[in-house]
Amino acid sequence: MGGKASTAKGPETTAGDGIRSLQTTGVFKAVNFELYVKPNLAIMAFGVVAILCSTGYLAYMKAQHRESKTYIAIAEDGSQHLTHKRSKWD
């Protein structure tokens, strides 16, 4: 029989498209947005710098807390007091 086989017309795919070449729903694409966006070097660099700055700030705050030699003491009535740490020798 001389008929041609019908092919589904869809978006042209190229090597490296990965999951972007699959047929999915709009909801799936909205929920998994990062799978369909091409990598952006500027946004990635900003994210890395933001995470490093946040981690550095948390480390700095922890170091400041340790150097302050204070702690929060809870009294019998439930009130909290900021107290200096004392050694047993004082």
UniProtKB/TrEMBL annotation:
Coiled coil: none annotated. It is a single-pass membrane protein. GO terms for cellular component: membrane. The chain crosses the membrane at residues 41-60. The keyword Transmembrane applies. Keywords: Membrane, Transmembrane, Transmembrane helix. It comes from the Eukaryota. The keyword Zinc does not apply. It is found in: Membrane. Belongs to the SMIM8 family. This is Small integral membrane protein 8. It comes from Halocaridina rubra. The gene is Smim8.
